[in-house]
Amino acid sequence: MDAISALGVAGDILAITEFSIELLSASDAPKTSSSLEEKDEASVTEKLGNLRLALSKKCASLQQRLPTSPSPLLKDELALLELTSSSLEDSELLLEGIGSIPKDVSGDRSRSWGKDRGAWLGSKLAGRFSPEEVRQLSHTVTRLASSILSCRISELNKTIESLQDVKQYSRPEQESRVDSISQDVDNLRLEIPRRSVHPDTAGPVVFTEADIRLFTDHLASLTEAEDNLFADKIVASLNYASRPVRHDSVPQAHRNTFQWAFDSRLSKWFSSGSGTFWVSGKPGSGKSTFMKFVARHPQTKELLTRWAGLVDTLAVAVHFFWIAGTPIQKSWQGLLQSLLFDVCHKHPSVVPLISPGRWEAAKAGLWQTAAEPWSVSELAAALRALASADNMPLKMCFFIDGLDEYDSDHAELCKVLCDMANSPHIKMCLSSRPWAVFERSFGGENKERLDIHELTRNDIRQFVSDQLQAHPKWATDESGTSASEKAKLIEQIVVQADGVFLWAFFVTRSLRESLSSGDGIRDLSQRLNGLPTDLEQLFKHMLESVDPVDYAKMAGILQAAAHALEPLHIDLYWQLEKEFEEYDYAYRCPIGSGPPEQILRQREQTSGSINEKTKGLLKLVDLRVEFLHRTVKDFVLTKDMGEYLRGKLPDDYNGFIPIATAYLGFLKTTCQDHSLVAGIMRHGKGLNSGPFISHLNQALIYASEALKADQCAPHHYQQATTLLDRYEVAVEDMVRSGHVTIRGVNAEACNPGLPFREELVRHSLTSYIEKKIREQPDFFDIFDESPLFAVLTPMSLNSGESPGPVPATLEILLRRGEDPNVLPRVRAPGLFEAASPWVIFARSTMSVFNMLSGPLMFPALRWNHALDNALFDLLMSYGADPNKALLDRPGAHTVFSHFLKISVSRFLGEECFDGYLRTLDAFFRAGASLGVPQNGAIDPDAYAAFGNLARSCPEESVLASHCTELKGIMARLAADPRRAGFLSSVIEKLIMHGSGMEEDLELLSLAISEEFPQHIAEPLLQLLDSKLEMSKKRGGTRKRPRESWGDGLHGATIKQIKGE
Question: From the centroid of its chain, how far is CA 744?
C-alpha cells in the first residue's frame, strides 16, 4: 500500500471520529456544536452513513489490490487497516443508536440536533462506546499517520541523495527540479510536528481530517514530481543525438500549401479512422515536407483529439527515416526509440507500463541500470506493451516518413507496422515512394491512401509564383513582357514539374539566378526550355555549370559524401579541401587546435565552398554535411555519375582514403580531451574508449574499406599503408605532446603507440598487419596484455554496433602461439574477475541472447559474424576451453552450456541454423562436456553466479538441464517446421555424444516423446534406443522401461518436465 492510500484511510477514519465526538459531546456542551446546529436527524444520519461508506469502499479496494502489490505492507499500514474495522463498528453502533432515539426525546425529527438527543445517545451507548475511546482512536491514527509520513519522507530523501550523487551528469533544468523537490520535502517534514503539537501547552494533539488532507496533497505533489524524475531519467535514455535532425532539416511547407489536406479523406481519417493511412508519391514530390506539415499542424491535433476523446489522452509521435543519415536514422532501432521517446516524453505516466524493470531500478536509485542503452528487443517489447495494454490511457497516432529509406527488410517492416496498427490504441500515417512492397501492404482495397504528386499542382504554382514575384527584377522588368507571358512561364514550370516539387525548386532557383544576372522574362523562357525535365539530368546540368577550376574539389566533395558511412562533420570537409590545395597537408600540419574564432571562420568558409561547388545538392545540418534529398544521393551513386565524377579526379583517387586522411588532420588539429572524459580511457584487457578512440576507429574503418575496394590496385594499397604508418607516428606524437591524454588502467606505463595498435588489430587490415610483422618481428612486444584481448574485444564507436573480430588477424596471432585461455597480467582497480580473451569473446558474442524479452527483429552482427566465420571453431582448434566458466563463481554457465541453451531460444534466427550446427560440432571436437560442470579452480566460498550467466540447476548435468529447457517447446515446433528440424539435428548430435550418460539420455528420450511432433520424435527415439542398446552391450547402465523412468534418481526432474 502506498503512503497516499494509507493516508486516505487515516483521513477517512479521522473524519468518522471527529463527527462521532461531535455527536457524543453535544450533551455536555453549553451549546450544540456549530457544525450540528443546522442539521436535523436525517442529515446527521446521512453524513455519518456517507463517511462510513467512503471508508468501507476504500478498504475493500485496498484489500483487492493487496495480493498484486509489489511490496509487503509496513507494520504501521497493517495496523491502520486493522483500525478501519474498529472505526466501521463504532460508526455502525452510532447509526443504530441514532435510529433508535425515542420520539419523546427527538420530538420533531426535522429539528436540529440538540442537547437532549446527544445525552440520550450517550446513555444508550454507555459501556459500548464512549467519547474517550474515540479520542484514543484518533491519537492512534495520528501516531500511525505520522510514522507513515516519516517513512515516505525518508524514501524521498533517499531518492534526492541518489540524484545528488549523479547531479554533475544531469541537465541544469533537472538539477533545479531536484533542488525544488528537496525544499518541498523539508517543508513537509517541518509541517508535521507543527500540526501534531499544541502551540501553547507543547503537548501532543491529534491530526484532524483537514491536516491529513493537507499532508496528502503535499505528498501527492511530491510523488508526482518524484515519478517525473524517474520517468525523465528513463526517457532520456531513449533519446539520441540525431533523432530530431532529419525532421528539423526537412524544409517547412511554403505558405498556403498543403491546405487541401484538411478537406481530403486524410482529414476524416484523423478524426475517426483507424489502422494505416499511406501517403505515396514520386521521388521529390514533397512527401517529407507534407508529413512535417500535417504532423505538427494545430488542425491535425484538433481532428485527432476528436478521435482520442480528450486532448490529454492524445499522443503523437514522429519518425523520419533518412537513408543518407547515421545508421540509427535508417534503422528499426531508430524508429522504435523515436516513437517511444515522443510518447513517453509528453506522457511520462506510461513509462512504468512499457519498462517496469527500468522503473523499479530508478525507484531503487540504480540510475545506471534505469538509463542504460536499450536493446532492439527491449524497445520492441516496450512498444508492444503500448499496443496491447488493457489499461492504456492514451490514443496514439504515429507519423512515419520515408519507409523506403529504411535500410533493411521492407516487407518485414510493413508486417510489423500493420500488426501494431491493429491495436485499438494506435493508428499510423505513413509515407514512401510507390514501391510494390508498400503497395501490397498499404495500397489495397479498403486501405486509406493518397498520391501526393497528383494533388500538388496548385501548391507548386503558388510556390513558383511567390518565388519569382519576390525577386525585384520580376516586377520591374522593362522588356514589355505582359502579365499573361509571366503567367504562361509559371504554368509551363508547373506542367513540366509534373508533381515533383524538387524539380520546381531547382528550376525556380535557376531562373532567379538568371534574373539577378540581368536576364529578362523572355530570356527566362528560353532558359527554361533548355533545362532537362528529368530530375537526375537536371542535377548533372547544374554540376556542369561549376567553374572548371573547381571540378576536382566538386567531385571530391561529392565522392566523400557518397562514400561516407554516415554524414561527415564539416571539419572533415575543411581538411578534405586542404588536401586538394596542399599536397599531404594532413601529414605536415602541426599538432594543436586553433582558437574557437578560427574554427568558426573555417566552418563558414567550408559551408560556402560546399554550397558553391555542389550547387546546393549538399546541405549542412548540425555541423554535418548531408545530401539535400534522397534523390540526390541516388543520383550520385549511379554508375554514370560515378564515372563522371571519377573523370574529374586523379586516376589513383580512392573515395575512402581521402576521408581517412581528413580524419588524421582532424585529430591532429582538434582537442579530444574533455573535463570529465579523457581522449583515451584504458579499461584493461585491450579495451579502450573515449572521443579520440571513437574517431580513430572511424578513420580505420575507412582505411579498411579502401583496402577492400581496391585489393588489386597496388597504388591504392601503397596509399593506404603509407597513411596507416603516418597515423601511428602521429598518434605517438599527439600522446607525447599532451594533445591527447591517456587515463585508466596502466595509463602511466602505457607505450604511446599502444592505443593505435590495439585499435588497429580490431579492423580488417590484416594485409597491413602482416606487412608490419615482416618489417618488425617485435611488433606486438609493446602490448601490456596478450594482443588477443584487443582482437576479441568489441571496438568503441560513436554509433552503431561493433563488427566482429577479423578471422585472418585472429589466426595470425593464434599461429604465433597466443593462448586464448591466458589471464590478464594487469588487473583494473576493483575488478574481481579475471576473464581470458576466450571468455570475453564468448560473453560479448552470446550476450545478445541475455537481453532479449521480445522478437529480435534483425540479426545481431557479432553473433552472426562469429558463426559465419567459424570463430568459435578457430579458437577451440587452438586450445580454447569449451568447458570454461563464463564467471569465476559457483554455478556459472560454461561457454558450452550457454551456447547449447541458445539452441532452444526462440530468438535464434533461421539464418543462424547451419552455422550453429557447424559450431556445435566444433564444440564436441574440442571436448565439450554434457556432464556436470567442474569448477574446481573457483573459490567455493565466492558469491554464486548471477543473472543469465548462472545455471538454473548447477548440480545437474548440462544434458539434464537441456531436457528441462525443452519443456513447453511443442507449440512452437508445430508452427515452425524449420526450427523443429534444426532442434532435431541438435538433439541428434547430443545423442551421439552422450556416451556414459544413460540416465540423462533417458530423460532426453522422455522430453523428445512429449515435446516433439511424432514425425520428428520417432527417428530420434530410434537413434536413442540404439545408443542405449549399444551401451548396454558394452556393460553400461541397464535401460529401464520408459513407463518407469519417473521412479529413479531423476524422478523430480522428470516431474518438472511433465509440469507436475
Answer: 29
